[in-house]
Design goal:
single chain; 326 residues
């Protein structure tokens, strides 16, 4: 196993915590935006709301990055194309499942369930390297599974979760792939602004196409753009949760270890839960929605504590695995 030094680790940790804050902000914003969709295009269904919640933010984000890189946006190396497209694939799969699932579960529940990838990362690396990841990983797995069962309202009679919880858990596998791809050292020399541009452009194409397929008719695509509330939420997602969050992630995550990055991302549900207890009422007053503030239920506190505790254990007792050089 090779040892890698990370001289900018402290600064990277701060920047990734800010990334977590932006992502935590996105959960109540996306949930509010899907409610706006349900009101202005009720005939379109949840999959159109999902795709058209994601697509415009990446279209606008691509435009922003093109303007920021006006003199050099075409100078993209082959490895940057490869990494950007890989990240776009994993991110698109994760975001589609997560955003659709948000329409069927609470924002705080979705945020905590997404953190399954923090345990999946060291497990997948252990399988890759064919070695035991260590007791801390196995204990963390038990804690995470218990937390997931509580938060997801697992039905022990049918051994199933609800649609929102199932989709959110599935999204975690895609986000794991995204994080692993960012930490792959064969891409260490790639420029973050270029892979972010490729990633944004690819997702803009993917979700614009999916929106066309999911729309009842072509005219439906224009309806949201006439809603001030939809535009407001979309701009918030574009500036903070898309351009801001992904630019920070793609720039700073490679400057710490992949496993440590996965653990830092566990602050996301804490931010999301706190914000979901305050923001929905504000959003409801502004956009005339029926979206009450969430409350800290026993299930949320216990399930969230188990998942967070698992990740603290991994942070204090790092797994005996590292990302291969690739």
């Amino acid at each position: 196993m090779s040892v890698v030094e990370y001289p900018q680790r402290a600064q990277a940790v701060v920047m990734l915590l800010l990334t977590n804050l932006f992502w935590g902000f996105s959960f109540p914003v996306v949930k509010a935006l899907t409610q706006v969709h349900a009101r202005i295009v009720p005939e379109a269904g949840t999959w159109f709301a999902t795709c058209n919640t994601i697509g415009p933010r990446f279209v606008l984000g691509t435009v922003v990055l093109l303007l920021m890189q006006a003199r050099s946006f075409w100078r993209i190396r082959r490895a940057e194309w490869q990494q950007g497209l890989l990240i776009a694939f994993f991110s698109a799969g994760g975001m589609m499942l997560q955003n659709d699932g948000l329409q069927f579960t609470a924002a705080s529940t979705s945020a905590f369930l997404t953190q399954l990838y923090a345990v999946l990362i060291p497990l997948s690396l252990a399988v890759w390297q064919r070695r035991n990841p260590g007791a801390s990983v196995w204990v963390s797995c038990v804690l995470v599974l218990a937390g997931v069962a509580i938060l997801g309202g697992f039905d022990w009679r049918t051994f199933t979760f609800g649609r929102g919880e199932t989709e959110t858990l599935a999204s975690s596998f895609f986000f794991m792939g995204q994080i692993l791809c960012l930490g792959w050292r064969r891409f260490a020399d790639n420029r973050p602004e270029k892979i972010t541009l490729v990633m944004f452009g690819a997702q803009a194409v993917i979700f614009t196409g999916l929106s066309w397929l999911a729309a009842p008719e072509a005219a439906t695509l224009l309806v949201p753009w006439q809603s001030p509330e939809w535009l407001g939420f979309t701009l918030i997602l574009t500036v903070f949760c898309t351009v801001g969050a992904f630019s920070l992630m793609n720039t700073w995550q490679p400057r710490i270890s992949t496993t440590e990055a996965g653990l830092l991302y566990c602050f996301e549900p804490i931010f999301a839960s706190l914000l979901a207890m305050v923001l929905p009422a504000w959003f409801s007053r502004w956009a005339d929605l029926d979206y009450p503030n969430e409350i800290a239920t026993v299930g949320l506190l216990v399930g969230g504590a188990l998942i967070t505790g698992a990740n603290v254990l991994l942070l204090t007792r790092p797994p005996r695995v590292a990302l291969p050089a690739g």
